[in-house]
Design a protein that fits this description.
This protein is mainly α and about 130 residues long. The protein has one domain. Helices cover about 85% and strands about 0% of the residues. It is rod-shaped.
Length: about 130
C-alpha cells in the first residue's frame, strides 16, 4: 500500500522519477534539434546555389550600370560607382542573413510544451 511508505522512500522515488523525466526531456530536445537541423540542410544547399547565380546576375547588372554611367562620366568612375552600390547591397544582405541565422531563432516548441506540462503535473502531485 502506498501510504505505508516512508518519507525517505518517497523522496528516493521522487528523485528517480525526476531523473527519468529530465533524461526524457533531454532526449526530446535532442531529437527535435536534430530534426530542425536536418530540415535546414536542403534549404541551405538551395540557398547557396541561388547565391551563386544571384552573384553572377548582380555582377552582370553592375557591369551594365557601369557601361550606362560611362556615357556621362569616365569609365573608371562609373565602375567605381557600380562597385560601391554592389558593396552596399552585399553588406545589407550579409547583415540581415546573419541576423536571420542567429542561434536565438532556434526554438524547441515541443520540448518547451512538454516541460511546461511536466511542471504542471509535478505541481499538481505535490499539492495533493
Amino acid at each position: 500500500m502506498q501510504s505505508d511508505r516512508s518519507i525517505a522512500e518517497l523522496t528516493k522515488d521522487l528523485a528517480a522519477n525526476a531523473g527519468d523525466l529530465f533524461r526524457n526531456e533531454l532526449r526530446l530536445a535532442r531529437a527535435e534539434a536534430v530534426e530542425s537541423v536536418k530540415g535546414m540542410g536542403g534549404g541551405i544547399v538551395r540557398a547557396a546555389l541561388g547565391l551563386v547565380l544571384a552573384g553572377a546576375a548582380v555582377t552582370l547588372a553592375l557591369f551594365a550600370l557601369a557601361y550606362l554611367l560611362a556615357e556621362i562620366m569616365p569609365m573608371w568612375a562609373a565602375a567605381l560607382m557600380g562597385a560601391a552600390i554592389g558593396g552596399l547591397i552585399a553588406y545589407g544582405l550579409v547583415k540581415s542573413g546573419l541576423k536571420a541565422i542567429s542561434v536565438d531563432r532556434i526554438a524547441l516548441p515541443r520540448t518547451a510544451e512538454q516541460v511546461a506540462r511536466d511542471l504542471r503535473t509535478i505541481k499538481e502531485k505535490v499539492s495533493s
